[in-house]
Design brief:
single chain; alpha/beta; 168 residues; 29% helix
């Protein structure tokens, strides 16, 4: 793909390259760029005009110091204790800004579900499967793309789990 095609799509160049490598270059024209940031799930849902739960958040945690990616629907929060149990880790915390950038190559608010600088373990909450289409970041805080959630989880190399906070 040419640099022009990546720039035209609005996607981060590394993410555009990842789409091509994964055989998903047909997603490039579907990437949407917004003038205002879509850094948070609320901002993205408002810009797109979709339900908050249709946003796929890509969140980096540190499990015993090792980065792990958790894919979560935008209306839910990750239960860190459930992640800890799922991974068999002693301690799980939100990753520091530096670790997110170092691991993924992207800034917080623009981390896509795949196309990262390094390979990490990926946990995907089952709540994502409640929709035909979810929207995820395309490598910048201003860009998103739509995808079938099962395909997204598969392309991210994710394991389906139940790690969202349950409200009683």
């Amino acid at each position: 793909m040419t640099t022009d095609a990546a720039e035209e799509s609005g996607a981060h160049p590394r993410f555009a390259q990842a789409l091509e490598e994964l055989g998903l270059a047909d997603l490039l024209p579907r990437i949407r760029r917004f003038p205002d940031a879509t850094r948070t799930a609320d901002e993205a849902a408002a810009a797109i005009g979709c339900e908050l739960s249709q946003i796929c958040k890509s969140l980096i945690f540190a499990a015993d110091g090792v980065p792990v990616l958790v894919l979560m629907d935008g209306a839910s929060r990750v239960d860190v204790e459930l992640v800890r149990r799922e991974l068999g880790a002693e301690k799980v915390t939100r990753a520091r800004v530096e670790l997110v950038r170092e691991t993924t190559g992207y800034a917080i608010g623009g981390v896509p579900p795949f196309g990262h600088r390094t390979r990490t373990r990926v946990l995907a909450d089952r709540s994502l499967l409640g929709h035909d289409v979810v929207w995820a970041a395309a490598g910048t805080p201003y860009t998103v793309f739509p995808m079938d959630p099962r395909t997204l989880v598969a392309r991210a190399g994710g394991t389906l789990v139940d790690v969202r906070e349950q409200h009683l």
